[in-house]
Amino acid sequence: MRIDILCKPDCGDRCERTLDNVRRALSDLDIKAEVHVYKDVRKMIDNRVYVTPALVVDDAVRISGRIPDIREIRSLIVERPRYRKRYEEVA
Question: Distance between terminal CA atoms of the chain?
């Protein structure tokens, strides 16, 4: 799984709080994932993101313009097909 966080170069604390929430959600679910933070305008334009921060999960923009909640990030991760089966067996 790959998670990208897209931010403007001068976004300030919002990018760091998003990264912190993503790390907490991944540790709660005990999932290993590649997490990248991009502070590049070109990367934002390539993904058609104009409001930051944006959360991109497996090359699909899922959240843009706000800091996602930890529960919301967990639900985005669990809805991925390869993790859905794993958590249905546990529940």
Answer: 22
- What tokens were used for 38? 């991009």
Nearest 5 degrees, angle CA 21-CA 49-CA 27?
15
Q: Are 52 and 16 in contact (CB under 8 A)?
A: no
**pLDDT tens by residue, 5-18:** 999 988 778 999 99
> Distance (Å, rounded) from C-alpha 15 to C-alpha 19?
6
Domain ranges of the chain: 2-90
Six-digit token string for 13 = 């604390």
Q: 2-90 has which CATH code?
A: 3.40.30.10
pLDDT, position 30: 87
